[in-house]
Every structure is written in C-alpha cells, then in structure tokens.
UniProtKB/TrEMBL annotation, chains A, B:
<dbReference type="InterPro" id="IPR018969">
    <property type="entry name" value="Xul5P/Fru6P_PKetolase_C"/>
</dbReference>
<protein>
    <submittedName>
        <fullName>Phosphoketolase</fullName>
    </submittedName>
</protein>
<dbReference type="InterPro" id="IPR005593">
    <property type="entry name" value="Xul5P/Fru6P_PKetolase"/>
</dbReference>
<dbReference type="InterPro" id="IPR019790">
    <property type="entry name" value="Xul5P/Fru6P_PKetolase_CS"/>
</dbReference>
<comment type="similarity">
    <text>Belongs to the XFP family.</text>
</comment>
<feature type="domain" description="Xylulose 5-phosphate/Fructose 6-phosphate phosphoketolase N-terminal">
    <location>
        <begin position="1"/>
        <end position="308"/>
    </location>
</feature>
<keyword id="KW-0456">Lyase</keyword>
<dbReference type="GO" id="GO:0000287">
    <property type="term" value="F:magnesium ion binding"/>
</dbReference>
<feature type="domain" description="Xylulose 5-phosphate/Fructose 6-phosphate phosphoketolase C-terminal">
    <location>
        <begin position="524"/>
        <end position="724"/>
    </location>
</feature>
<dbReference type="InterPro" id="IPR018970">
    <property type="entry name" value="Xul5P/Fru6P_PKetolase_N"/>
</dbReference>
<keyword id="KW-0786">Thiamine pyrophosphate</keyword>
<dbReference type="InterPro" id="IPR009014">
    <property type="entry name" value="Transketo_C/PFOR_II"/>
</dbReference>
<dbReference type="Pfam" id="PF09363">
    <property type="entry name" value="XFP_C"/>
</dbReference>
<dbReference type="Pfam" id="PF09364">
    <property type="entry name" value="XFP_N"/>
</dbReference>
<dbReference type="Pfam" id="PF03894">
    <property type="entry name" value="XFP"/>
</dbReference>
<dbReference type="InterPro" id="IPR029061">
    <property type="entry name" value="THDP-binding"/>
</dbReference>
<dbReference type="GO" id="GO:0016829">
    <property type="term" value="F:lyase activity"/>
</dbReference>
Length: 730, 730
C-alpha cells in the first residue's frame, strides 16, 4: 500500500499548508496496513488503542495485531480512528465519501479508490455522485483513483485503458482527472505535491465562484489518478520471478519467511531499505522530522464527525399532529405512507441541514409527496420544461440506483446526520450485501467507546409484496426482513405498523434512535385505520398487544388466537374475526397484533424479546393462527422456543406471486380472511363439528372472490368495501 | 414504448435484408406492451399462447391480459416468446445480452436499455462487457440506449448529458455511439434505418477483419443511442398539462378513462390516430402489408436458443478419475476446490465451446488453477510483461464485479449453455437480488411447455465463513444459502459436501442438472478426507446418511446423535465423536452427515424432502446435536415439523466473527469439538452424572486452545494435526 502511504502524507502536507478540514476514505482491499501505520505515526492510533503505544513495544503490537487472531482486519474497519468506511467488501468508498460531503460545506473528503474496486457495479455508478453535490452547501470529494494495475491475479480494466479513454470516461461523468504517475519516488513526490495543490485550488475556485454566483452549476470537479507500480518499493524479484509491478505483490510478496532463509533475508533487506534508524529514535518513537509531517490540529484520524461526535438529534414533530382521525376502528381509509409524508415534511422544516431523503426515483410513487412541498428533488444538471420540482439543493435525492441511495445515506449517517431510504420491498435485496456490511460496522464500532452511536439506518419498505397488483412475481419478495434479522440482535430491528398512526409512531421512534438498522414495512395503498394516536403510541411502545376491541374474548378465555403482523395481514385477520363472529358467535377469539417483530424473540436472543410470561399473557394457551406479512418460517425461526409453539400455525407469503388483485394474492398464499377463519375453526375442538358447513361456505366464498378477480380485474365489491363492523369500543 | 416498437420493426427489416440471426433483450421497465404487440404481429405470440389468437377476440385478450389479474406482467418475462430476460428488476439487460453472445458466433444480440436502467449499478458496470467479447468465436451485442428523458418522476442522468459527454463515456468503454434522434416519425424512421444498416455493416466489418487477422483486438463496437420523447405519439396534453416528452407519460398517461369522458375521448382519438382500419382486416388480423414486415424465418421471437432448445448436455469426466485416495477416513488432507479444479479442467476439455467459468478475480484464489492449464483468463485489452495466463478467448472470465459474473452467466445459461460462478461466500449477497429474479424466471418458465429447462445456475461458494482467518467479520456471512432456500423448492438446492470426493459427486450432479439454482459450499483449505469415491457417490445420492464407521452405535441403539453439515462442522463433529469415545467409551453415538440440505424438509415442502420414517431411521429417537455450517435457525426452519425436533440442538454461526484462527472461530460460535462433546453428554441422562468432570475438562481444553491461538496466531498443534482415529472400517 505504498500509494496509500504516499497519499496520506501528501494530504497531511496540504492540511498543514491550507488549514482545510479533511476526511479520508480508504477503498482498496487489504489497505489497512498503510492507514494503521499513518495514524500510528500521527499518534491518534495510540490515543484510541492505548495498548499500541508510540514506542518499540507498541510498534511490535501494531505489526503483530495486523490480520492476526484477536487483532485487526486487513482492510479499513471501525478500529481505525478517523475512518467511516468498512472496506471489507469492495465498491462503496466513493458513495460513502459523497454521503459524507453532503451538508458539510467546509469538508474535503479524500477518497482512495482501488482499480480493482473500480470494476464493481457500485463504484461504476458512483462517479455520478459529482452531479449531486452542491457547490456551496455541500463539501467536496476528491477521488484518488489508484491504478496499480492488478487485482488478485488479473489486470484491472481501468489501468489498461489509454490515458485518453480514462480521461473521457471520467470527465463525461463530471470529473477532471489530474495524473500522478511514475516509479521514481522523488519524482512522484514532487508531482503529487503539485497536482494536489492544483486540485485543491480548483476546488476552492469552484466554491468561490459559486459563492459569487459565477461558474457552471455542474462544474467538472478535480480528481487525481495515481499510477504507481503494485508492490512499489517492495522486493523486485522473488525466487527469480518479477514481483514489483505484478499481481505477485498482492497481499504477501514473500510467502516463506519462516521456512526460507532467502525470503527472510530479502524481507530484512526490504524493510531496512526504508532506513528505520533515521525515522525512529532508540525507543521506537518517530523522530521529530517525521512527527512534524502531521498536522497538530485537523488530523484526519481525529476528525470528530467520523466518530459520531457533535451529531445532533433531530427535532421532531409530534405524531399526534399528523394522526388520522376516525369515528371507529376499521371504518376509514388512509394511505399510510402519504400520512408519513406530512410528518417527514415537518421534520425536514425543523432540520433543514441535518436530514436527507434517498430513493430510487420512487419518492412520489411511494406517496411521500408532502416532503416536496418544502424542498425539491436534487438536480444540478441541465433542466427543461416539464421537469417536476427539481432544485440544485433539494433534500430529496433520487437516482435509479439502490446502491447509490444506500451508499450515500450510509456516508451521511456515518458522519452523524440523519436520513431515510424509501424503496420497493422486493428490490431492497439489491442492497442486501451493503446492509450486512453496515450492520457489521455498527456492531463492531460499538466496541470502541471513542465512537459515539451514529443515527440509525432507516428503511421505509413500501410497494410491498401484497400490493404489487400490476407488476407480478418479480416485484413480490418480502425476504429483506429475514435478511436484516439474521444480523446481530443489538443492531437489527423490524417494524410492521398495521396502519398510518402506528407508522407515525414507529418512524418517530426510528428517527430518534441511534446505532440500529430499522426496517419499517408499510403499504402505500388506501387501507383501513385502526388505532387513534393514543392507542397507536401505546401499541407501538409495547411492540405487540391484544386488540381487545377486535376480539370476542373480553369476558372469557380465548379459544383461539388470531395473530397478525403487517398491514394487509391485519386487515385479513380482522375480517376473519368478523366472519367468526358472524358464523360462530359463541367462539372466544383473541386478536393480537405485532408491530415490533423482535418482541417475539426470547429475551436471550434479542434485546427487544419479551419474557415467556408476558408472551403467554398475550398469546394465551390457545392455538394461534398467525397471519404474517413475510415468509412464514421467519415467525417459526423467532418463536420456535416459545410455549405453545406447536400450536402456532403461521400463514404468510409462500412465493405464490403473480399479476393479480390484492385479495387474490392473499388467497393464493393462504392469508385471506376465509382461509384464516377456517384455520381457526379447525383448531377449536368444541366447534369442530360445525366445521364442515362453515369450511365449505368459506371455501366457496374465497373461490367466488378469486373468480370475480380474474373476470373483472378487481376484487369483489364486498372485499373492496369491507369495513370492520365488529365493535368500536376498546 | 413507441421506441421499442420502432426498434423491433427496424431490427426485423434488417433481419430480412441480411439474414442475420438476432435475439432481442428488452431492458426498459414496463416495456412488455411493445413486445407483446410485436410478437403478436409476428404470429409467435399466438403460437405460444393459443388463447390469444391473431384475430379480434385474440387482440382483446392480448390487451386485457396485460398487467391484469391472471394475465402477464408489464415487463419482459418468460411469457414472451423469444425473451430470455426477466425485466422486473432493472439493471441486467446488457449483462444478459453479453452472456447470450458468448460462444454464439453467428448471433447478434440487440439490447434495448432504458435510460432509467442505465443509472443502476449493474448497468453502469455492464458497458465493460465489450472488452470480453471475442471478435470471431463470440457473437455481437448491439446496445440500443433509449433516452426518453425521464424515470418515474425525475429526469435521467444520461439523457441530460451533452452529446459530447455521452460520446466520451461510451467510447471510453469500448462503444461507438451512433445517434437516432427526433420527434418526427418519418425522419426518425429514415435515420434509424440508415444507422442500423451502418451499425450492422460495422459489426460485420469487425468480424471480417478478425477472421483475416486484421484490426485491433479490442475494437470499439457500434451501438445506437435512440433519443425520442417519452410518451411519443401519445396524448400531447392531458388536463391542460404537457404529457408527451415528460414524466407524466410514465405507465398510464390517461388515468381516468373510466370516470372522465374527456379522458375516454382522448384515448379513443389517440388510438385511432394509428389508423387501425388500415392495419387490420375486419377479422382483426394484420393486413398483408403489416404481416410482410416480419421475417418468415429467423424471427427473434422464435429463436430456438431463447427457449432452451438445442441445448446440449455436458460430457463430463468421471468423478472417480479425480478422487482423492487415502488409507483410512480422516487421515489425509486435501484442498477440496483444488481437486474440483482438476475435474473442471477435464470437463472443459470435453466441452470447449459450451462451458464457461466466472469469478470476481478469485479463480486462482479459490484454487481452481487446474482449469488454467487448458485455457486462459479472458483478456482482450493491452497486455504487459508480468501478466499471468491471459488469453483473448480464455474460458475463465474474471472481472471484479459479482454483478457482471452473475449477469453474464445468466445470459449464457438462458441461451442453453453451462457455467460455474465461483465466489467468496460472504460476498455472494452482492447478487442476492439477481438470484431472486433468476429463480423466479426458472419457476415461471417451467409453466410454459415450449420452454425447455435450461442448464442450472451453479454456484461454488468458497472462502467460507469458517476460514476467513485473516479478513475477519466483514468476510464472514453464511446467509446466502438461507436466501436461496427462501425461493421456490422446485428451483432451489443447497449442497454442503463434507470433503473433496463428495464435492466431485455433488458438482457432477449439478452440472448435469437443469432448471435449478444449485449452491455448493466447499472450503478451499487443506482438510481431512472421509469418503472414498464409492462411498462419496452413495452418500451424495442419498443426500444424507449415518456414518456408521464414525459412530459407536453399530451394535446398539444410539443414545445421542451428532449430526453435521458442511466441511468444518463435519471435522469438529468427528473430533467430538472421538473425544466421546475417549471419555465415555460405553456411550452409543451416531454420526449423521447431511450433504443435500433440502433432504431435511418434509416431502410436502421440498421435492428432495425425505419421509418421516426415513428421517427417523437416520436420526433415531435420540437427542441430536447438529453442527451446522450456517445460521442455526436455517435447520430449525427446515426441520421444525420433524419428529424429535424439540430434542434437536443446532450449533452454527451466530455472527460471532473476527480476525482469528479456524478453531477459534468454531469456539466463538459453539461448533468446536469440545462444545459439541459437552452438549452431547448433557443430553444423555445415563451419563449425566459424569458430566461435571468431563465438561470442566472440555471447557478447559477449549479455553487453552483459544488462548494459544491468541498468543501464537495459530491453532494448537493438537488441533492442527488432528486426525480421525476412531476406526477405519465401514
């Protein structure tokens, strides 16, 4: 990683010369060695890891812990002071850097990108970020594309492009490449210094112009292309084969230092070639000449924003001010995400420089339009008549790349600000691997007390599996919540608010939280409302509760429990409860709704888990028919150790998807009201003798509804106009 | 989708003029209407969907089924004859087109890319594909980038680039854009015809040059940029607002035709503007003039390769010829993937134009080197000294983008050929969403008898969670198998071969299979070998079996079962069995190994599931300690309805990952031999009284091993040199 060491040293020189605040993002794989060393030389590594002192013993520990059991990984990770980037999986450095620059007008984010990483899909798209940075209200990003020529074994695509091709590709996407190339250290140093000074002057010029209202709104931004040999300054030949400048210098150029005395001797020669005796004093401390190369203030490794310091909580409106009113539960329709839009609009007004919204061009489709009453969609490019609410500093960032939405938001959060990513449920899988890495970052970062918890990563997952009526199977996949719940329980949260008022309270909670990945699943279609503001607040705080007003077990023990999680399953469960009242008025049915899925975990598996006693209070000893938004096995996985689990029957999405009506989707997957009611009857021996008649009736009604859908393309009037008529007192 | 209709018509004209074999990939979202119509006009739609005849009633049905319950989705999907592309999730059209072109020298793949799709990460990276296509042995790809200016609500980035910028960006990545731009239909037609003819001539020229050994090895390839207004030829104004050329024409330009008589009138005017009376006869059949616009032969919608026809099975070597020999189980080391490499090399020799290997630059890292004895890494760019085994027509495609590896392989499979994608386990999540879409394609395609099953999508998942010793937590995630098993059981398969010989048999099976997503998880590190070729064959055919040679239950019923799935869990389980022999010689232990995870499903949940009787034969009634490669809940999810499930205790990865030794990883997650042995003892009442002594002993030994790892950076000699010594007869 000689290129990273070189870069870091020159950035430090520039900081000292100009007083520019900087932050460093390290993209290349296995590059942490260089950054461990650089931050150790600055003293910040020892400050954050007191066991790694700035002396001989500390230096030994620094070397030893690298990629060593109980030590630190070989890529950027939370152990590195000043780092905001989990670099284990390649591709996200430039997106993180861009996210960090939003709303940080005084910041310059230097971002080293490996030429291996540059081949990834996410990085390929990330060059577009230049177009989204405001010249005045945002900071700047300085990409440093490091062409060392090879990945593990193959050459890299970008390193073998001609200079003209690379120039063309980058400048077309808003960057002005400036080149530092060579293998002679002294020449490269001089060149790097000149180029970096010029780049920073250009960045300053763009800002100065913008402040005076001059210059193009979307100027080309400077970037550096650094072309040095892979394994530069390392062993030239090993066992007679060329190493420097080839793929053989990847990771470990001398593989047999333990067994092969020649390799050991080469290693010693190599390390001595840096003349350590001139760099360190006898105690192993950097000599003054070296120590003076680092800024006293503004050290990149001590940038407060990178450790979550100075992160300001949001000032949030009251959910009560946005709540949907109704005369009785289950009688009025509202679009949950549209209601949330009003709340988010007011939140934005209160937090104009601290909150951003990201979406793959679905902000309006997801019915968060109200936000656009007080801001625009960020757009700095050419505009034409017919464009809708574009604005150069809009707070809604839309780009048809889930990777960019996620990567930008992560960078924004990792530097202490707040945000929301709204996206279609099925396509949330596009960022599966990114959320793994972010969750791992959150979990690992919590081990370092000098890192303050950062604002949570908040997903609004909508256009969900039950209401992709027109798109069909490809748009129907509720598995993102399974994926997130496979991550550490300290970090992962999944909420399924049943209606708009619950969505408000859940989102209020999520926006106030820190250090979490919050997945909120909510529909955007008109749906019945059940809880007023007060009831919603209490229900969401509890995370799950029996809806006594919906059940018929008020004066006697429940004979069967209808449980539900998710807006559509809640609707079908209530309809099933109403059917049961109609058909078997003497049956004691309890309705339970779950908002916070993690409540179902045993407490030793998840911090939100409730005890078995509380669980039994809610679910009773009666059999449970559970209508679930997602794959049924997620509930089994969570609750398999619970009392009565053998009598819990989960109905959920079983990958039976197609282009069809909302009710038909439910029927295909067995979460429709008729199937749920029949399932409940089957579980109660006392009424089982009446089953045949009712089951036949319920089946006939389900089949008629499905036939109607296929014939007319819509659900039956009785299903569309269905209202809860089971009682309105709580 | 007037742009798609235009494109299709011109491609047909070109086919008729030149006799060029073509295939069409439709990228833009909600674009299926155009392709439904085009293939209906050609007659192939009616051929494949006899209920949609080429007459008035058929036309009505064609319109009605579009995005309608029980009908077809609004994007390209398996119902479309000639299509190989599931277009529900945007981003993969160009990668699919590239994959289809490999080894199809006579084929031209025309690929329409929406400017929304062009913003996705996967598509951004896909332009690199040009560099991987051989001029002679591969076919050609003709991208048609359709700039209609808007996504759902925002403008698109590429449409607002200047012509110079777009030119620069595309040509830098190996494409020569040719422009068709305008709003006047007649002019655009003429221009499209000229440009398409020129593009095809250029494609022919590149091939002719190559066949004569002329021209650059990596020429710029022609592509078309088609810029027409969004909603072109549709209503210009609706309710006084401009629609044509703006985002308002997305999907449904006239939203209220049912309620609003003005909208209805506008709809009628619009549709009549195409003068249907001149296009169709009284019976609703296309008039001759229209029918003659389509080629008689070589219809894109009847391309046999797109329906899996003419797909040739692989000729495969015998696993026996590659098997690892040993004197007794558990005494010899081998690297499973290296052994597989030899088998794959021989497979490649037998199938030189029908089999490709894809990897994000990890082919050698994953120890499949042997393949490179008979081919090279595909590389058509500039070459320099130090490059390792590059070749312009190499059969190993390495690019550091999992998206491209997956997308190219999908395109190759969807046109009937075979391939393997080898990748690091943790980073397989990068393609989570792509495998969802491919699995959905396979499942939906199976509904159409005119689609033959295509070769399976085979993953070799290696560098797995238990052996990312140096990289740590970011590289440790076994959740890809959970994800794949959430897809339809008809399609999804997960195999965990315990050793090299089993890996050979599993892979042999996978390469012979069709219509599946096969995930094979296997380590690349030296590991003990257990089954000879014959035993491996039988074991893999069964999918799971009791390893009688490893157990102590030969002459009496098992008191406890040690089950395992995965190579490292198998090693720890056998070590635990040996410990139990040593400590409690009178205990009857059975060892069960599971290769095919789906065998554990009940038969009504997965076609591979075994019956409860067979399950009980194997697992007995004794308690089960199950050491599992992945997250423990996956086993619970699969087996929760099995007899004895309450007494099954699964030990697996619980997201306790870090940079540490192999044994330490096992210990941190409770799948190490000592923990397993102690857990087994706990379950057997007869020996429970001896538990305290043994448990204390086992705990002490585990802790000592962990301390050693932290001190010396390696596992203890006793763990490293561990061999199975429990018996060698079967």
């Amino acid at each position: 990683m000689p290129g990273v060491t070189l870069t870091y040293a020159h950035l430090n020189r520039a900081i000292m010369r100009t007083g520019q605040e900087m932050l460093f993002v390290l993209g290349p794989g296995h590059g942490a060695a260089a950054l461990n060393a650089a931050t150790w030389l600055e003293g910040t590594y020892s400050m954050r890891h007191p066991e790694v002192r700035q002396d001989l013993a500390g230096m030994r520990e620094l070397f030893r812990q690298f990629s060593f059991p109980g030590g630190v990984p070989s890529h950027a990770s939370p152990h590195l002071p000043g780092s905001i980037h989990e670099g284990g999986e390649l591709g996200y450095s430039l997106a993180h850097a861009t996210g960090a620059a939003f709303d940080n007008p005084n910041l310059l984010v230097a971002c080293t990108i490996g030429d291996g990483e540059a081949e990834t899909a996410a990085l390929s798209a990330s060059w577009h970020g230049s177009l989204f940075l405001d010249r005045v209200t945002d900071g700047s990003v300085l990409p440093i594309l490091h062409l060392n020529g090879y990945k593990i074994a193959s050459p890299t695509l970008l390193a073998r492009m001609s200079r003209e091709e690379l120039d063309a590709m980058l400048s077309a996407q808003g960057w002005e490449p400036m080149y530092v190339e060579g293998a002679d250290a002294a020449e490269v140093h001089e060149c790097f210094a000149d180029v970096l000074d010029a780049a920073m002057e250009r960045i300053r010029g763009i800002r100065d112009d913008a402040e005076c209202g001059l210059g193009p709104r979307d100027p080309c931004r400077p970037m550096i292309v650094l072309a040095t040999p892979k394994g530069w300054t390392g062993p030239m030949l090993v066992d007679g084969e060329r190493v420097e400048g080839t793929f053989r210098s990847h990771q470990v150029p001398l593989p047999e230092v333990r067994e092969n005395p020649e390799h050991l001797a080469q290693l010693e020669d190599w390390l001595r070639s840096y003349r350590p005796e001139e760099l360190f004093d006898d105690a192993g401390r950097p000599v003054d000449r070296i120590a003076r190369l680092h800024p006293e203030h503004l050290r990149m490794s001590a940038n407060r924003a990178t450790h979550g310091h100075d992160s300001v909580d949001l000032r949030l409106p009251s959910p009560a001010d946005h709540s949907v009113g109704f005369a009785a539960p289950g009688t009025e329709l509202a679009e949950a995400t549209r209601v949330l839009g009003g709340y988010l609009r007011d939140a934005l007004v209160e937090n104009p420089r601290n909150l951003l919204f990201f979406s793959p061009d679905e902000h309006t489709s997801n019915r968060l339009d109200a936000v656009l009453e007080v801001t625009g969609r960020r757009w700095r490019g050419r505009r034409i008549a017919g464009d809708d609410r574009l604005s150069p500093d809009g707070r809604v960032l839309e780009v048809l790349s889930e990777h960019l939405c996620q990567g930008w938001l992560e960078g924004y959060l990792l530097t202490g600000r707040h945000g929301v990513f709204s996206t279609y449920e099925a396509f949330a899988h596009i960022v599966d691997s990114m959320v793994v890495q972010h969750a791992k970052w959150l979990h690992m970062a919590a081990e370092y007390p000098w890192r303050e918890p950062i604002p949570s990563l908040n997903y609004l997952i909508t256009s969900h599996v039950w209401r992709k009526d027109h798109n069909g199977a490809s748009h129907q996949d509720p598995g993102f919540i399974d994926h997130v719940l496979s991550k550490r329980p300290e970090v992962s949260r999944v909420y399924l608010p049943p209606d708009a008022n619950c969505l408000l309270h859940v989102f209020d909670h999520c926006l106030r939280s820190r250090g979490r990945v919050n997945v909120v699943v909510a529909g955007k279609q008109p749906a019945l409302q059940y809880l007023d503001d007060d009831a919603a607040r209490v229900h969401c705080e509890r995370g799950l509760s029996a809806w006594r007003w919906a059940g018929s077990d008020t004066d006697r023990p429940a004979e069967v429990v209808l449980a539900c999680a998710g807006d559509v399953p809640t609707q079908e469960t209530l309809a099933a409860a109403m059917l049961l009242r109609e058909l078997v008025p003497d049956l004691a049915v309890r309705v339970v709704n779950v908002v916070d899925l993690a409540r179902l975990f045993p407490p030793d598996r998840h911090p939100h888990g409730i005890g078995d006693d509380e669980y039994r209070d809610i679910f009773t000893d009666a059999p449970v028919i559970f209508a679930f938004h997602g794959y049924p096995w997620l509930i089994h996985r969570i609750a398999y150790r619970r009392p009565g689990h053998d009598a819990m029957h989960v109905h959920g999405f079983t990958d039976n998807g197609t282009t069809t009506t909302p009710f038909s989707m439910c029927a295909m997957n067995g979460i429709d009201r008729f199937t749920l009611a029949a399932a409940a009857l089957t579980e109660v021996p006392r009424v089982r003798d009446r089953l045949e008649r009712f089951t036949a009736d319920l089946t006939a009604r389900r089949e008629a509804a499905e036939a109607y859908a296929r014939r007319y393309g819509i659900d039956t009037p009785e299903i569309i106009d269905w209202r809860w008529g089971g009682g309105d007192s709580r």
